[in-house]
Design a protein that fits this description.
It is a single chain. By secondary structure, the chain is mainly α. The protein has one domain. It has two helices and no strands. The two termini are 28 Å apart.
Length: 70
């Protein structure tokens, strides 16, 4: 098995949210900011769970995904 990968550590979720909002030209209203930060922390925690899932050596990346393929 391959060693589990770890998620990038965002030591400062707030800085990440600010940088991404600026890059996208978004303004996050003060009344929504706390909720946005909480949700990004949740997203980071969920992503960590996915990234830590061990994959065997026999697992290959799928080059194309199609919902209608058998």
């Amino acid at each position: 098995m391959k060693p589990a990968q770890t998620r990038p550590h965002f030591h400062d979720i707030e800085a990440m949210v600010d940088a991404n909002a600026a890059a996208l030209g978004l303004t996050i209203d003060a009344e929504h900011r706390a909720g946005v930060l909480i949700n990004f922390e949740r997203i980071a925690n969920l992503a960590q769970t996915v990234m830590e899932f061990p994959l065997g050596e026999e697992v290959e990346l799928a080059p194309v995904f199609s919902h209608d393929r058998p």
